[in-house]
Specification:
The chain has 298 residues and is mainly α. It has 2 domains: 5-67, Hypothetical protein rpa1041 (Alpha-Beta Plaits, 2-Layer Sandwich), CATH 3.30.70; 82-296, Rhomboid-like fold (Up-down Bundle). Helices cover 64% and strands 8% of the residues. It has helices at 17-29, 52-67, 82-101, 108-112, 116-120, 126-129, 137-158, 160-181, 192-209, 217-220, 222-234, 243-263, 266-269, 272-296, and strands spanning 8-14, 34-39, 42-48, 114-115, 187-188. The protein has a 3-stranded antiparallel β-sheet with strand order 1-3-2, with helices on one face. Helix 8 (160-181) packs across helix 12 (243-263). The radius of gyration is 28 Å and the shape is elongated. The N and C termini lie far apart (94 Å). The model is unreliable at 1-5 and 68-72 (pLDDT under 50).
């Protein structure tokens, strides 16, 4: 290398030798010739005047990229995730007992299951009631486990009231889309549509509002990849699995998650009265759908 310093320009100065070594690696990787000097204010990196502009740009890009460290931005916790999980569990267990025992001598299964042709004909309540219908303990346990897990985080990030109202709305939409796309005789039951609506909601919400927001694009899409991976791993197996219902639930949840990330204001969702009102509305919607369905069934 040449020693005449007047032919070289200083492109970086740092008091930390390890930091200087990092910047040296950047210049080496970009095939930019440099000199390193020990000065009173620390370490200096010099490059030829012809390469100075390019070196400054490369070092600036490196600093910006590494300043956006993953995990620096956190999702805001709105509330406790457990009340929503308890409510979800209570509703599914109550509905399961009513269906199995034909409570009050009523045909809960016939009134509540989703049948595509009937939904299209106007029996809208089935898009809600079908979410609570399970015929065996294995089916119920699986949806309680996965739904409770995803629902816990929905409750933490959106609050138990707002979060579960969003899940119910997305799951209802998912069931409607499933009914519109299937043959009239197609039947579907179970909370799995709600489970994957919760997963889709979390995927979109953490993508748009989470701690990866200010990171490089490869890190920002990590929640989407994780969500699709979970959908593929948990939602496409089993002889009686309604794969399309899982997909429509995930897609509907993803859309609702995007809307909440864009428009939900933390200062409003943090209000206790808002959470309580939304929680009450969620329970009321499920109860009203069942009352309407049982009354219509005679």
């Amino acid at each position: 290398m040449q020693s005449q310093t007047h032919l070289w320009a200083v492109v970086a100065t740092t008091a930390d030798e390890r930091r200087c070594a990092e910047l040296e690696l950047v210049l080496t990787a970009r095939s930019i010739e440099y000199q390193k000097q020990n000065a009173a204010d620390g370490w200096r990196l010099l490059v030829s005047a012809a390469n100075a502009e390019r070196a400054v740009a490369e070092l600036a890009a490196y600093r910006v990229e590494n300043a956006r460290a993953i995990g620096q931005r956190r999702l805001e916790d709105i509330g406790n995730g457990w009340p929503g999980v308890v409510g979800y569990t209570g509703i599914l267990l109550t509905a399961f007992l009513c269906v199995r025992q034909s409570a009050f001598s009523l045909d809960w299964y016939g009134a509540g299951r989703l049948q595509a042709g009937r939904v299209v004909a106007g029996e809208w309540w089935r898009t809600v009631t079908a979410l609570t219908v399970h015929l065996d303990l294995d089916h119920l346990a699986g949806n309680l486990g996965f739904g409770g897990f995803f629902g816990y985080f929905v409750g933490r990030y959106l609050g138990p009231g707002v979060g579960w109202l969003a899940v119910l709305g997305a799951a209802t939409l998912g069931n409607l889309l499933n009914a519109l796309a299937q043959a009239p005789q197609h039947r579907s039951i179970g909370a799995s549509t709600a489970v994957f609506a919760a997963l889709g909601l979390l995927t979109a919400y953490t993508w748009r509002r989470g701690f990866l927001k200010e990171t490089p694009w490869r890190a920002r899409i990590a929640p989407i990849i994780a969500g699709l991976g979970l959908l593929a791993f948990t939602g496409t197996g089993g002889e009686n699995t309604d794969v399309f219902a899982h997909l429509t639930g995930f897609v509907a949840g993803f859309g609702v998650g995007l809307a909440l990330a864009r428009f939900a204001r933390i200062e409003i969702t943090q209000l206790a009265n808002v959470q309580k009102s939304c929680g009450a509305l969620t329970v009321l919607a499920v109860v009203a759908a069942w009352v309407w369905g049982l009354w219509s069934a005679g």
